Automatic annotation (TrEMBL):
Descriptive protein name: CRM domain-containing protein
Ranges for region Disordered: 27-63
CRM domain location: 150-248, 270-366
RNA-binding listed as a keyword: yes
Superkingdom as given in the UniProt entry: Eukaryota
Coiled-coil ranges (or none): none
Species annotation: Amborella trichopoda
Gene Ontology BP term (one): mRNA processing
Repeat is among the record's keywords: yes
Keywords of the record: mRNA processing, mRNA splicing, Repeat, Ribonucleoprotein, RNA-binding, Transit peptide
A Gene Ontology cellular-component term: ribonucleoprotein complex
Length: 411
């Protein structure tokens, strides 16, 4: 028979191991082999804390940023009108700068420079806020004059303009449908670190009112516009501008939702009945198109075109196919305020405006006119002769003006 040799078990080996003569040689086993610490070796290690990436929203131990801007902080300075009050908000009053990042309170539409106090019955509260606002504006005006320094000479102006043309300088700031936003102020100051001026290209809805864009740029940045052609603006920083002393501009982390405003077009136009409004909308949609607006175009001359069209036509239609609904609604609001006119409809991607019953041309058209009966605009290609008798208008062509002047000289 075959006898299988007996193999000692591992447990007996480990059990008798500590009875060996290693102690006689002053040998101490490592803690991993020591039977007293065998239970501690197989214990589960403590779980490691989860990795947390650095976040810009984590403000532990940091104070809120103090901004010394002397005006109310808004998302857009050109596309917001403080005179029009909102009906409500589309979201809670979450600050777009992040929680506890700015020392100003967010009211839902802006972060005012002066802390809004509780309106009391006493009239002195409002007077104190008005005085504080006037002092801020005065300080901002003085600091701007100090930074601009002496005015540029004609040679310096032309050299700066040529230096920042498109073929010589590729750096520019784009101003789009949102207009002059708050974060764009930081971009402009970053450009001013390396150059005396910056080129700004304006496209879309804000180009209808370029005068407002220019005033807001000068007020909010403290610079000076030295050149404007169409939608291109060159903004000069000033002689005494120091980049290290630039104002602290906190950045918005997201775009806040626009508040709810009252309806632009109501069921009936003021002064007309329901049937008359329906007929006017049908006639407006069937009227000939004044112009077709391209997407992201320059609409500098749109207001003057509508004013000239109102001299002969009662209704004006503008084709806005391809534009966003919010874009041509903003265009309609600007036309209503600048022409001025009455909005009729936005149906079928069209803007239809009405001049009203008692329409009178705006005072801007008559500033340079010497007589009340005739108006000649030398800068325009067409000359318009207006008889100021209620609403009687007629066009006068250039060749007619020339013949009349020659006939008068011959006599």
């Amino acid at each position: 028979m075959f006898f299988r040799p007996s193999i000692p078990k591992l447990s007996s080996i480990f059990r008798t191991r500590h009875f060996s003569k290693l102690k006689d040689y002053s040998f101490e086993p490592p803690p991993s082999l020591n039977p007293k610490n065998q239970n501690s070796v197989f214990r589960n290690p403590k779980p490691k804390p989860l990795y947390k990436p650095p976040s810009s929203l984590d403000r532990t131990g940091l104070k809120p940023v103090r901004s010394d801007l002397p005006f109310d902080i808004k998302f857009s300075y050109t596309e917001s009108n403080s005179l029009v009050k909102a009906i409500g908000l589309r979201e809670p009053k979450y600050s777009p700068f992040g929680p506890a990042r700015l020392d100003r309170e967010w009211t839902g539409t802006c972060a005012p420079a002066i802390k809004p106090t509780v309106k009391s019955v006493e009239p002195g509260c409002l007077d104190a806020m008005a005085k504080a606002q006037a002092e801020l504006e005065k300080k901002a005006r003085k600091s701007r004059e100090k930074i601009l320094g002496e005015p540029l000479t004609p040679v310096e102006r032309t050299s700066l303009i040529e230096k920042h043309q498109r073929n010589k300088c590729k750096q520019q700031v784009n101003l789009g449908r949102d207009g002059l936003t708050h974060n764009m102020l930081n971009d402009i100051h970053n450009h001013w670190k390396h150059a005396e001026a910056v080129r700004i290209k304006c496209l879309g809805v804000p180009t209808i009112d370029m005068k407002n864009v220019c005033t807001q740029l000068e007020e909010k940045t403290g610079g000076l516009i030295i050149h404007r052609h169409g939608g291109v603006i060159i903004l000069y920083r000033g002689r005494n501008y120091i980049p290290k002393k630039r104002p602290v501009i906190p950045l918005m982390l997201w775009k806040p939702h626009e508040p709810v405003y009252p309806r632009l077009i109501k069921t009936t136009i003021e002064g007309l009945s329901i049937e008359e409004t329906k007929e006017m909308r049908k006639r407006g949609l069937a009227a000939p198109v004044l112009t077709k607006l391209a997407k992201n175009g320059v609409y500098c001359h749109l207001v003057s075109m509508v004013r000239d069209a109102f001299l002969t036509d009662e209704l004006v239609r503008i084709d806005c196919q391809g534009l966003g609904r919010s874009d041509y609604k903003k265009i309609g609001v600007k036309l209503r305020d600048l022409v001025p006119c009455i909005l009729v409809t936005f149906e079928k991607e069209q803007i239809v405006v009405w001049r009203g019953k008692d329409y009178k041309p705006s005072s801007q058209e008559f500033e340079d006119s010497q007589s009340e009966s005739e108006l000649v605009l030398p800068d325009l290609e067409t000359y318009v002769r207006i008889k100021c008798k209620k609403n009687d208008f007629e066009r006068r062509l250039p060749w007619q003006i020339c013949t009349n002047t020659h006939s008068g000289s011959e006599q």
